[in-house]
Design goal:
Elements: E1 2-7, H1 11-26, E2 30-31, E3 40-45, H2 50-68, E4 74-79, H3 85-94, E5 98-100, H4 108-120, E6 127-129, E7 150-154, E8 156-157, H5 168-172, E9 176-177, H6 180-192, E10 197-201, H7 218-226, E11 232-236, H8 245-253, E12 260-262, H9 270-276, H10 282-295, E13 300-307, H11 314-327, E14 331-336, H12 344-348, H13 354-377, E15 383-391, E16 397-402, E17 407-411, E18 419-428, E19 433-440
Parallel strand pairs: 1-2, 1-3, 3-4, 4-5, 5-6, 7-10, 10-11, 12-13, 13-14, 17-19
Antiparallel strand pairs: 8-9, 15-16, 15-18, 16-17, 18-19
Helix pairs in contact: 7-8, 8-10, 11-13
Bound molecules: S-adenosyl-L-homocysteine, iron/sulfur cluster and FE3-S4 cluster (F3S).
Iron/sulfur cluster is lined by residues 159, 161, 163, 166, 168-169, 203-204, 239.
Amino acid sequence: MRTHVITYGCQMNEYDTLTIQSELVAGGHDLVDAPQDAELILLNTCAVRGKPVEKVVSVLGDLRKERLAGRDLTIGLMGCLAQLDEGRELATKFGVDLLVGPGAITEVLPAIEDLERAREAGRRGRVDRLAFADDLVHHLTPPPPPGTLTGYLTIMRGCDHHCTYCIVPQTRGPEVSRPLRAIVREAEAMRAQGVDEVVLLGQNVNSYGRDDPALPSFAELLLAVAAIGFPRVKFTTSHPMNFTSDVIDAIASSPNVCDYVHLPVQSGSDRVLRRMAREYRRARYVEIVEELRAKIPDVVLTTDLIVGFPGETEADFEATLSLYDQVRFDAAYMFAYSARPGTPAHQHFDDLPRALKNERLGRLVERQKHWSLEGNRRFEGREVRVLVKDIARDGDHVVGHSDQHHTVLVPKAQVRRMGLHRVRVDHATPHALYGQVVGAETTSVPLVLAS
Ligand code: SAH
Ligand code: SF4
Ligand code: F3S
C-alpha cells in the first residue's frame, strides 16, 4: 500500500517513525511523501498536552471529510494517544482502522495484515495492537536516510517516575533499557552512513541500566558511544533525580560529548515540586548546576518549566522566577499546565484559570529572554562549531546548531555544503547567534568501526 506517516511529539516519536517506516518497507509497502498520494495514513501521535491532541483531532476530522467525499483511505492511529482511553474514543468517533500503541510499533505489519484479512472476509471494524511487545527493545532500527546529519537513538523506553501532571508513564509504560549491543550497533551503522551528531534519547536517560544489573551505567554507555567517533554526541532528557557526578565527569572528559545539558526543573517552589511528585527539591537542583558549572565552565544549560500547576500561588510562581535568576538558564521550554485526563493532578486538584496561567507564562517568557540574551552574549566574539542543516526562513541565511545547542545563523553565501563549520559569532539575540564562517570542517574525529 502507498503509505504516509505523520509524526507529532518528541524525538522519541521521530525515532519510532523510522522503525515503523522500516517495518512498512520490509512488508512491501511504498512510503510516499505527500499525504494525498497515500492509501494508508498513519498518525504517530503525542498526548503530553492538550494542544498535540487537538492537532490530531483536527487532522482526523479532515480525513473523515475526505472519506465522506469518496476517498478510499485506511487510517491508523499510533503512538502515545493511541494507548489512552482518549485515543480509543477518538478512534471510534472518527472511524480509525488501526490502533497501535507506542510499545507495539513492531506489530504494525501484522496489524495491517489482520485488517486486510478481515476486510476480505467482509468484516468491518478496527484492529487494535496495544500490548507492549517484548522484543521491542532488542529490535534494530536501521539508520536514517543517507544525507541525514543528526541521528536519534532511543536507549531506553518508558518512565518509572510518577510526576502527577504527566501522562507519559501511562502511554509508554515502565522503564526498560535497551541492550548495549543493540545501541552500539545502531550507532555504528549511523556513523558509517555519515551521521555527524547522535542524540541518545529516553525520558530519563540517566536511569539507563538501572533496571538490569548486567547493563552499564548511563555514564559508561555515554563513553562507549563517544568512542565510536561521532564528532558530536548529545543526549536528552536528563532527570535531576539520577543526574550523578559520573555523568558530569563523562561530559567533562569527552571532547565529542557536547557541553550541553537539558535538565528539566519544572518549578522553583518546593511546595509545587512536592505536589508534582518530583523527587528532588530546589536546593538539590542548584547543587547539580553548581557541580556542572565547576567541572564544565562553558556548559549550556536548558530546562523545562510548567507554570500554573494546580494550586500554584503567586509566591510559588515568584519562586520559579527567582530560580531563573539564580540559575540563569540559557534557554527554557515553558509550558502552561495542561490537565491530562487520567493523571493524578487532574483527578485531585482544580485547574487554575487559563488567563492566570497565560499571564504567568508571559512573565516567565520575559525573564527567559533576558537571561537567554545574557547567556548568548557570552559567545560573542568567540568561535563555535556549527552543524549547518537548513536554509533559514529569511532565505538569506543557513541555520544549524552549535556544539552547545545554540541556534546559529550564517550568511547563505558563505556556505557551500551542509555539515560542520567553524563560525565566529558576531551578534547574539535571545534566540540565536549570528556569525561568519571561518572554515568548513570535515569530520574531525576519525571513524572507527568496531569489528
Ligand atoms: N521525561 C522528561 C520530559 C517529558 S515531557 C522529564 O521528566 O523531564 C516534556 C515536558 O513536557 C516536561 O518536562 C514538562 O515540562 C512538560 N509537560 C509534561 N506534562 C505536562 C502537562 N500536563 N502540562 C504542561 N506541560 C507538561
Ligand atoms: Fe513524565 Fe515525570 Fe516521567 Fe518525565 S519523569 S516522563 S515528566 S512522569
Ligand atoms: Fe508526546 Fe509521547 Fe513523546 S506523549 S512527548 S510523544 S513520549
